[in-house]
Design brief:
Chain lengths: ~300, ~260
């Protein structure tokens, strides 16, 4: 709130994290602007969590520079953390306390008075739709409820910047949508979000801008739409054939297909017009088991950039 | 820096422990309240009657109950401290990860370590208050003199808690705790002068006993309780226990920091 509106909330240059010989984050650069939802997309082990822990001033930077909210994490970690809202990968809720008590004590960590913590906790429980569970123990709550409580906990200090590490991993589809919807509201309220995910749809739903990470490095950056435009085609034709009978199409679909990708279970054909490509294939007398035309997604971007799918 | 401001984050950590204890204290009633009563009754009065009958002059000039009680007080402090500094620390760092949640806030790993230590000191003191009341009821000590034993129990608790929490934070699982209790805490409990003067031990073991922190705690506690305090020895006892607490706290800064914020 006290940061000038044009300065980035997070600025990383050559940011590096090493654990002994292992390089978890390898000299990455990025800026996060106020009010945006910024994503780190990548498979497990890509370095997303290590990056988040450095931004969250939990894990010291090995090399490079990092400025968070205009401050230096190495010297002003506590001050910075006072203005962050963190939703870690694991909920870390206190199972020995009630839902409400979890929020109250967390407010105390941020030096709120009990009266203020109670006021905010009441509002936040409404916001995450847990008001009727305030006096309950945490343990029996569902995964989605625990996640929402952790999000409420991260908001108790009215943070300038929210860090969410895989906010919906492990949740069922319904619970995921509820979390997304709440995060979307936060975004509308102007809260800056940084999130990591290995779900394409999550990144496409929530992120204004994202970086794709793979093997400790950033391999692409941009808005979901610009990444798709830059690294994929407009449409994708997915074909399935009976085992091992995928026909050799090389050279036969020029003008329809810009690029193809053979996966274990299907063949992906990238081009401007999937329907036209399908007709051309039928024209060649080829009959796949199944066919699907869809819009290109971040999944395709990731496949293009790394040659691998995101979630095995 | 203003001390009150610097202490605030530590107090928040203590507050967390108090809040949790408000929910869990019932589960500690036996270990905190009944177990010392049973021990004092069985050993001090039951076994004590036999011993006193056999030694009309008493041990160190007093009844076995009066001899035993101040030793048992600090031995109890040691056990409470050891327990509260092992499993709860493992839970905070690895199982429930409540300490992990703390350091996502302005609190730092040192605040967590100091807060944990202070909390154990308070827990031990609470147990000691109960114990001293029971001692007074059994006639094992004058109530006013008993109050003087509370800081001894607290110091004993912190002296054990600090190095044990440093050790606990460094462990991957709770398996080493069983060894700690079996091979360190239990032998100390039995052979550090709580139940009988160490002069009863072979000379070599006497030497070992004198080196254990519990022996120093027992010497201090018994010296005050029986009003036979040797000031020079008391200085050694207090210094030994304080040094242990300080060294343990510094070590726990390292282990808490490494496990929570690497």
């Amino acid at each position: 709130m006290s940061t000038p509106s044009d300065a980035p909330l997070v600025r990383a240059r050559g940011l590096t994290k090493r654990f002994g010989d292992f390089t978890a984050v390898d000299a990455i650069d990025f800026d996060v602007q106020p009010g945006e939802a910024f994503g780190f997309l990548g498979p497990n082990g890509a370095g997303k969590t290590s990056t988040m822990r450095m931004i969250g001033c939990i894990s010291p930077v090995t090399a490079g520079s990092l400025v968070v909210l205009g401050m230096d994490p190495a010297r002003q970690g506590s001050l910075i953390r006072g203005r962050l809202g963190v939703v870690p990968q694991q909920d870390t809720l206190d199972m020995e306390l009630t839902v409400l008590e979890n929020l109250l004590i967390y407010g105390r960590y941020f030096d709120l008075s009990y009266a203020e913590a109670r006021r905010r906790a009441g509002e936040l429980l409404e916001f995450v739709q847990l008001a009727d569970r305030a006096a309950d123990e945490v343990e029996p709550l569902s995964g989605g409820m625990k996640r929402r409580l952790t999000i409420a906990r991260g908001l108790i200090n009215e943070p300038d910047l929210m860090l969410l590490d895989e906010p919906t991993t492990g949740l069922d589809p319904q619970a995921r949508h509820l979390v997304w919807e709440r995060l979307y509201r936060l975004k509308k309220q102007g809260v800056t979000l940084i999130l990591t995910t290995h779900y394409m749809d999550e990144a496409e739903q929530l992120c204004d801008r994202l970086v794709v990470m793979d093997k400790a490095r950033i391999v692409a950056a941009g808005s979901p739409r610009s990444l798709v435009e830059q690294y994929s085609s407009r449409e994708v034709l997915e074909l399935r054939f009976a085992d091992g009978s995928a026909p050799d199409l090389s050279g036969k679909l020029d003008g329809f297909v810009e690029r193809s990708e053979q996966l274990p279970d299907r063949l992906l054909l990238y081009g401007p017009d999937g329907e036209a490509t399908m007709e051309a294939i039928h024209g060649l007398g080829i009959r796949p088991l199944s066919q699907l035309v869809r819009r290109s997604s971040l999944e395709d971007v990731f496949l293009r950039l790394t040659g691998r799918t995101l979630v095995e | 820096m203003n001390v009150a401001v610097a202490a605030r984050p530590v107090l928040r950590v203590v507050e967390h422990h108090v809040l949790v204890y408000r929910r869990t204290w019932r589960g500690t009633i036996f270990s905190t309240f009944f177990s010392p009563i049973l021990f004092l009754a069985a050993m001090g009065i039951g076994l004590g009657t036999f011993i006193d009958d056999a030694n009309p002059e008493g041990i160190a000039g007093v009844s076995y109950l009066a001899f035993l009680a101040p030793g048992l007080l600090v031995a109890q402090a040691m056990q409470t401290a050891a327990f509260e500094s092992t499993y709860p620390v493992m839970a905070g760092i690895r199982w429930l990860k409540t300490y992990v949640a703390m350091i996502l806030s302005p609190l730092g790993t040192r605040h967590v370590a100091i807060g944990q230590l202070i909390w154990v000191g308070l827990r031990v003191t609470l147990g000691a208050v109960v114990f001293v009341v029971v001692m007074a009821v059994f006639g094992a000590i004058d109530p006013l003199r008993g109050v003087l034993l509370l800081p001894v129990a607290a110091l004993t608790g912190v002296a054990f808690a600090a190095p044990i929490q440093a050790f606990a934070a460094a462990q991957k699982n709770d398996a080493p705790f069983a060894s700690l209790f079996r091979f360190v805490i239990m032998p100390m409990f039995i052979f550090s002068g709580t139940f009988f003067p160490i002069s009863q031990l072979p000379e070599l073991l006497q030497l070992v006993a004198v080196l254990t922190p519990l022996w120093h705690a027992v010497a201090l506690s018994r010296g005050i309780a029986l009003d036979v305090l040797d000031p020079a020895l008391a200085v050694v006892n207090v210094s030994y226990l304080t040094a242990l607490a300080a060294a343990g706290l510094v070590a726990s800064f390292r282990t808490f920091g490494r496990k929570l914020a690497e």
